[in-house]
Amino acid sequence: MKKSKKSQKGVTSNDKNKGMGKEKEREKKSSSLESGSYNYKMFSFFNRKFKINEVEPPSDVNKAFSLFTDEGSTHMTAEQLRRFMSVHQCEVSTRLEDAQNIIEQVVNRRHHITKFARHTLNVEDFFHFLLSDDLNGPIRTQVHHDMSAPLSHYFIYTGHNSYLTGNQLSSDCSEVPIIKALQNGVRVIELDLWPSKDEILVLHGRTLTTPVSFIQCLTSIKEYAFVSSPYPVIITLEDHLTPELQAKAADMITQTFETMLYYPESDLTEFPSPESLKYRIMISTKPPKEYLEVRSKDASEDESSPKDDSDAVSRNLLCYSNSSSESDQEDEDFKSLQAGVSGYKRLITIHAGKPKGSLKTALKEVTDPVRRLSLSEHQLEKLAGSHGLDIVRFTQRNILRVYPKGTRFTSSNYKPTIGWMHGAQMVAFNMQGYGKSLWLMHGMFRANGGCGYVIKPDILTRSADELFDPKATLLPVQKTLKVKIYMGDGWRLDFKHTHFDAYSPPDFYTKIFIVGVPADEAKKKTKIIEDDWCPVWDEEFSFPLTVPELALLRIEVREYDISEKDDFGGQTCLPVPELRTGFRSVPLHDKKGVKHKNVRLLMRFEFV
């Protein structure tokens, strides 16, 4: 069966009528809606007419309406709606004024009358309210976690190579993806700094990516840092600069951010809280080695180059030292250069770096100054197999950043749950791509009002003898999540009527996944509803959960095709601990995570 892949919004006539005038097309569209049917052209010479089924309240909705209204009554008052919200939806804090506001909004939307005309809901109004995701969404939209704990106690929304517009090898570098990331709630921006004569450029080194200026990135960060969240932005720098350019970078940073920039007077023994850092920007990078330390080491060890080849600052300082005489003037030059390096170092709030010994040793060391350690996804997987508890213990005070392996040239991503299971705060992702892994990232950071900081569960921050072991397999079931999916609606408004199938209405089905610790992972699937733009599944599934605190509920709608790959109908991912029980309207998103205007599901969530 041949498919049409166009995605124009609205219901229009078939492709044969594409060239007709706007007036004719409008008349034809209006006629189709009034007649309650769609016409599909078969083999270019006859039409198939399909009736548009009316969207009706499921029986469970009708029962709930009857239960919370007076016997025989056809309308629900504000007090009855408040009671429904408190008892059935478990929103015990709902006030009478909140219920009255809901009624006014629903009546105005459906009937276009003033708030003084009606103060009750009929069953259709009640159903409309339940299907409105802005009034009855699946999770809370306000910040509600404790924001006074140290930064190390939070999962933080983190980007990788935040300046790239596409792949890792040849795409453009730009401030645009940085702006988009900040608008979407990302709190950690990564910039790779490279020298170009006297300029500082941001690019992916040793590739064909085209650069963007450092100052342009800083200016964009300042402008957009807090448009979606008031909580701190962290800039992680991968620094390949000379000491002179480090001093210049320090000037750029201080002059751009001014009082927004936070840095402590001395090394931190505990990270500050997100609450105390509202509207502040911090720098995290590897501190440069100071000239006097390097020079002393050079004299004692008689070495001409540093052992750590990745330390560009040490290398430049040593080369400068070895090629210069010991005159007083040159010592003054050294001191001036060192002052610039020290100024750069002073701005670093979160110190990063590779461990001096093995990774296993570094995880077990207890150090007073807290720090950030970076591991590739492959390193984490390897280390987690034998030292999972050490990683969890390390992340109680320190920050662990996990980044994609170097072979992900297309800017794909890895499964983030292994990082979260081990307490990794910064699970760095390529935000410019899309795919199932990125959907999980979106789902995690829909929690806590989408502010970019999600407090880690107690199992990852409690004392050593009660610490969560990510390798544990025989864990007891803590609770069971019951998910009932009633129906879906909105595709007929957001897509052309031949988008999914050129010859008939779509055949939708839904897949539901639990993603989390291995013991909890599960997959369920509804039946296929044929030839219906408003599918009614009315199916319920149960998911036993051993670690519900780390579970995500992923939902994906597909359109069945007997001869080709099933079409994509929308997706979403929700953090299980944040789910609101009762009837909920669940909006769906496209492959890139952009919310559809009208497509949503009516579902019910219950914990037992």
Gist of the model:
With 608 residues, this protein is of the alpha/beta class. Helices cover 29% and strands 23% of the residues.
Radius of gyration: 29 Å
Ends: how far apart? 44 Å
- Envelope shape: globular
Major sheet: arrangement of strands: 6-5-4-7-8-9
CATH architectural label of the largest domain: Alpha-Beta Barrel
Strand content: 15-25%
Number of helices: 17
Mean pLDDT: 88
Cofactor: Ca(2+)
Keywords: Cell membrane, Hydrolase, Lipid degradation, Lipid metabolism, Membrane, Transducer
Subcellular location: Cell membrane
Catalytic activity: a 1,2-diacyl-sn-glycero-3-phospho-(1D-myo-inositol-4,5-bisphosphate) + H2O = 1D-myo-inositol 1,4,5-trisphosphate + a 1,2-diacyl-sn-glycerol + H(+)
Descriptive terms for the model:
single chain; 608 residues; alpha/beta; Recoverin, domain 1; six-stranded mixed sheet; five-stranded mixed sheet; 17 helices; 21 strands
Question: Can you tell me about this structure?
Answer:
Residues 1-33, 292-315 are annotated as: Disordered. It is an enzyme of class 3 (hydrolase). Keywords: Cell membrane, Hydrolase, Lipid degradation, Lipid metabolism, Membrane, Transducer. Helix 7 (176-183) packs parallel to helix 8 (214-224) and helix 8 packs parallel to helix 9. With 608 residues, the protein is an alpha/beta fold. It is globular. The chain contains 17 helices and 21 strands. It has 3 domains: 59-131, Orthogonal Bundle (Recoverin, domain 1); 151-288 and 338-456, Alpha-Beta Barrel (TIM Barrel), CATH 3.20.20.190; 479-607, Immunoglobulin-like, CATH 2.60.40.150. The strands form 5 sheets. Strands 6-5-4-7-8-9 form a 6-stranded mixed beta sheet. It has a 5-stranded mixed beta sheet with strand order 10-11-12-3-13. It has helices at residues 22-35, 59-67, 78-87, 96-111, 123-130, 133-136, 176-183, 214-224, 243-257, 291-301, 312-322, 328-346, 359-364, 377-394, 417-421, 436-444, 491-494; strands at residues 37-42, 46-51, 154-159, 188-196, 199-202, 212-213, 233-239, 281-285, 348-351, 372-376, 399-403, 426-429, 453-455, 479-489, 508-515, 522-525, 536-545, 552-559, 567-575, 582-589, 595-607. Residues 1-35 and 301-325 have low confidence and may be disordered.
